[in-house]
Amino acid sequence: MKRIFFIASVLLAQFTFAQEQETVSTDEKKCVLPKTDIYIGVGGVFYNDFSLNQKIRASGMPEIRETMPELMIGINSLWEKYSFDMDLSTSYSNKKNSTTQNKFASGTLRLRGHYNFVNKSRILLSGGLNVAYTHNDLNLYSRNNDINLNDLNPENNSGHVSLKNDIFYAGPSLAFNLKRKEKLSIRLNVGYEFAFTNGKWKSDYASVSNSVKENGQNRLMVGVVFF
Fold first, then answer.
1. Which residues belong to the signal peptide in this entry (predicted)?
2. How many Cβ atoms sit within 10 Å of the Cβ of residue 142?
């Protein structure tokens, strides 16, 4: 009888140990963490025509450029089947003629969720959706402005118009990642984003009459990032 109890105890201990190993193994599989990298990049943004350009053109002033360089910094999380990006980017342009000039600055927060169609040691191909929020600042001013620091009364100074707008975008995107070295990857991002909010032009310094909306202002973005 003692021998039976001894054998049963040994079998029970072995079974319990095996169950613990299986539980740990299962938990490890469930808690797989993504590979996370910080990246920097350069690219370009290609807008279709700004609605505001029609009014700028009618006033004889230089229009907002539709092609702008873009700089970005972000973070990438990579799973076997999925990848996720969050990045901040900025773009800037200016254009002038003999009498007037504009300066346009833009900042974007972009989220990118992708499914990995191909995920190999050297190559990654993925596609999915971009969602972005963009804030734009535009300054239009005379190149012949003169500021007298002895007379800073705004009523006696003119020749400067400051405008801003905010737009939410969403659209499809693709990414091709070439893993050249263990600690260096290069990725090409391509996306087309549709404006989903009206993007009405406003000002912090004045009420704006006869404003226009930029809800048809879609854009193509192309970027190369390094991480």
1. 1-18
2. 14
